[in-house]
């Protein structure tokens, strides 16, 4: 299987999917009045394993919990198991992926029942025969620009020897080999190309007859070997000019067993030893893979070597673990659950297997060559026959005989070519070809309607999940909403405070404005008073002081920048100095000070009314005497 392109191969990383199937109580267990050792939570896929009463210590450890990918109850049908655990992998084989489904568990728990079942009763058919119907239905439903070759192989590992269940000699020991391009394979294993459900089913039945089984105390028909039924689907995608090859391994393991429980002896004892040994190695491989160890003991058993690609390699893998419900199987069930739970953590790296020059291409080329030969022969045989002469010579008769013999030979060769072409053409199945019998079609319909049910189930589940999600979202929104409400309340409170502050500021502004108006009015009043006073002073000066005095006085008047007042020079010559100085009370001084600052404050009438009149009180200018 060489990769067509040199681009890096895209690997699909996926964990091993682990399904659990619980077998119903069997006849023996019912007779013995066995108690159940399990309680399953089918919704959350959790199984609780309870220690038998006599072994209980009263501690929490008496109960063990395991979560798996899915749990099938004892009521689950073969189709339920097929649809959920197998169908998705079968479909991926058509995309060029390798897939492995293996049944694991203690002896007598239902591995063969799950993988093979009873072919004679359609509803009891197991995964392997249901896969046949699915594969051919898939081909019938695919587009016409696809062609397929389906090939099957069937082997068993018995006492650490690989045997070909479909080979001429089932006792012949085969060898497991490895190649970088195709991975692990069994050398000289017989492969059969099949073109119908019947042909593949016949091969399965033939192989099953060759499988070694034995009656034990635990199982009337106990498989003494691990069996691997392999279906290879080569798909030629004409539209993409690409060929993919997907390989599906359907594995029915022999069950682990306790010799004292199964009651085997002699050959059975040896079988038991090698079964347990290989299952122990399988457990060690699972352990090593889960712990990410650099060394994984694949080579310690034929089983693990053969399953190397399926465990941590190029494959999508599903494990179906079988357990019995009875308390008497507690230890074995515990062991199965422990390994199954571990297997969930194994990571596989599947890739699409692209094939260059696959079987389909080779067969198609061969058919083209055969067709060419056939048309040449037809041309020869269609050549006009020699004219019939009335009087034939011996030589003529000889010639005719030769020609007839040649014709016969050509016809024979033509027939052979046609047969060969028919055989080869039969191997290639075209997409859209209806390969299912009516009954099988009905079965497939049953499966698809089951699929619809499952889809309904899934959509119901999805709706439930959506509902839960929405409820969570609602709670989330409500929480956010209430926190928003709180925030809103907080903001409203802050806005109220701000509005209050704005109102206060506005009031203050109005007060200030009012005050300013009042001040302005006071100033204006003051100004008016001053003007009046100045008018009075001017009138008195003009009236009482002669002009020459006035000019004289003006000449003596200088403005003092420091005090910002007019001062009289040579006051010594004035009569005012001779006058007894009127004492200015503290109050008056204060008033005079205040008057400089606060104009709207009116002094009492009796006291100094203005600066100027204050100044006047100290005037050094003599009053004219007339
Ligand atoms: N889910 C089931 N429903 C009904 N019967 C079942 C179921 N599972 C198993 N059985 C019955 O239990 C018996 C033992 O089953 P089976 O042979 O498949 O076990 P096993 O695990 O393959 O055992 P071993 O490892 O010994 O080969 C069979 O008679 C089978 O029909």
**Number of discrete helical segments:** 15
Helix content: 40-55%
Largest sheet composition: 11 strands, mixed
Fill in the CATH topology of the domain at 77-309 and 345-355. Kinesin
Estimated share of beta-strand residues? 15-25%
CATH class of the domain at 77-309 and 345-355: Alpha Beta
User: Rg from C-alpha positions?
Assistant: 56 Å
Secondary-structure-based class equals alpha+beta
- Coarse morphology: elongated
By CATH, the superfamily of the domain at 77-309 and 345-355 comes out as Kinesin motor domain
- Low-confidence parts lasting 5 or more residues at pLDDT below 50? 1-5, 576-584, 588-626
Question: How many beta-strand runs?
Answer: 22
Q: Which ligands are bound?
A: adenosine-5'-triphosphate
Report the span from N to C terminus. 146 Å
Mean pLDDT across all amino acids = 80
| Second-tier CATH architecture of the domain at 77-309 and 345-355 | 3-Layer(aba) Sandwich
Explain the layout of strands and helices.
Blueprint (H helix, E strand, L loop, with lengths): L10 E5 L1 E6 L4 H6 L5 E4 L4 E5 L12 E5 L2 E3 L5 H16 L5 E7 L5 H5 L11 H15 L4 E13 L2 E4 L8 E2 L1 E4 L3 E4 L5 E3 L2 H14 L2 E2 L7 E2 L2 E12 L4 E11 L6 H4 L4 H24 L11 H5 L9 E8 L6 H14 L3 E5 L7 H23 L12 H34 L1 E2 L7 H107 L2 H10 E4 L4 E4 L17 H12 L13 H7 L9
The structure holds adenosine-5'-triphosphate.
The site of adenosine-5'-triphosphate has 18 residues, from helix 3 and strand 15.
Family: Belongs to the TRAFAC class myosin-kinesin ATPase superfamily. Kinesin family.
Subcellular location: Cytoplasm, Cytoskeleton
InterPro entries: Kinesin-like_fam, Kinesin_motor_CS, Kinesin_motor_dom, Kinesin_motor_dom_sf, P-loop_NTPase
């Amino acid at each position: 299987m060489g990769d067509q392109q040199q681009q890096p191969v895209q690997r699909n990383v996926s964990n091993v999917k682990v399904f659990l199937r619980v077998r119903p109580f069997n006849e023996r267990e019912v007779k013995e009045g066995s108690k159940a050792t399990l309680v399953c939570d089918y919704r959350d896929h959790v199984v609780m394993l309870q220690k038998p009463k006599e072994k209980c210590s009263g501690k929490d450890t008496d109960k063990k919990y395991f979560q798996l990918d899915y749990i099938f109850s004892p009521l689950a049908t073969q189709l339920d198991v097929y649809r959920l655990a197998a169908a998705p992998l079968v479909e991926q084989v058509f995309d060029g992926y390798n897939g492995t489904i293996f049944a694991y568990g203690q002896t007598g728990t239902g591995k063969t029942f799950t993988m093979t079942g009873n072919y004679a009763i359609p509803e009891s058919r197991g995964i392997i025969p249901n896969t046949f119907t699915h594969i051919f239905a898939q081909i019938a439903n695919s587009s016409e620009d696809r062609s397929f070759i389906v090939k099957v192989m069937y082997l068993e590992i018995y006492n650490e020897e690989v045997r070909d269940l479909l080979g001429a000699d089932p006792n012949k020991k085969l060898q497991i080999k490895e190649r970088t391009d195709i991975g692990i394979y069994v050398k000289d294993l017989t492969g059969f190309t099949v073109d119908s459900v019947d042909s593949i089913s016949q091969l399965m039945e033939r192989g099953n007859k060759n499988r070694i089984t034995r009656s034990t105390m635990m199982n009337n028909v106990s498989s003494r070997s691990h069996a691997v039924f392999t279906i290879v689907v080569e798909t030629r995608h004409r539209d993409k000019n690409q060929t993919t090859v997907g390989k599906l391994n359907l594995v029915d393991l022999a069950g682990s067993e306790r010799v004292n429980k199964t009651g085997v002896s002699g050959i059975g004892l040896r079988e038991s030893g090698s079964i347990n040994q290989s299952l122990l190695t399988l457990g060690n491989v699972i352990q090593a893979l889960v712990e990410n160890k650099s060394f994984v003991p694949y080579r310690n058993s034929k089983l693990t070597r053969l399953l190397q690609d399926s465990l941590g390699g190029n494959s999508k893998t599903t494990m179906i673990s079988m357990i019995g419900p009875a308390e008497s199987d507690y230890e074995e069930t515990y062991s199965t659950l422990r390994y199954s739970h571990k297997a969930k953590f194994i990571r596989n790296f599947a890739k699409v297997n692209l094939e260059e020059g696959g079987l389909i291409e080779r067969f198609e080329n061969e058919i083209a060559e055969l067709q060419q030969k056939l048309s040449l022969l037809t041309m020869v045989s269609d050549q006009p026959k020699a004219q019939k002469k009335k009087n034939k010579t011996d030589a003529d008769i000889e010639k005719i005989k030769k020609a007839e013999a040649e014709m016969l030979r050509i016809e024979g060769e033509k027939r052979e070519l046609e047969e060969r072409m028919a055989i080869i053409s039969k191997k290639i199945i075209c997409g859209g070809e209806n390969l299912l019998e009516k009954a099988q079609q009905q079965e497939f319909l049953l499966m698809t309607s089951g699929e619809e049910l499952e889809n309904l189930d899934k959509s119901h589940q999805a709706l439930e999940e959506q509902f839960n999600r929405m409820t969570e979202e609602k709670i989330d929104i409500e929480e956010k909403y209430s926190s928003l409400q709180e925030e809103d309340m907080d903001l409203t409170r802050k806005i109220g405070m701000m509005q209050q502050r704005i109102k206060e500021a506005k009031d203050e502004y109005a007060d200030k404005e009012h005050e300013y108006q009042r001040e302005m009015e006071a100033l204006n009043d003051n100004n008016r008073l001053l003007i009046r006073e100045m008018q009075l002073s001017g009138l008195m000066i003009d009236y009482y002081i002669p002009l020459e005095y006035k000019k004289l006085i003006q000449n003596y008047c200088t403005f003092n920048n420091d005090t910002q007042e007019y001062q009289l020079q040579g006051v010594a010559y004035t009569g005012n100095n001779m006058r007894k100085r009127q004492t200015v009370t503290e109050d008056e001084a204060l008033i005079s000070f205040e008057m400089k600052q606060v104009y709207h404050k009116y002094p009492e009438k009796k006291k100094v009314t203005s600066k100027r009149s204050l100044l006047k009180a100290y005037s050094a200018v003599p009053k004219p005497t007339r």
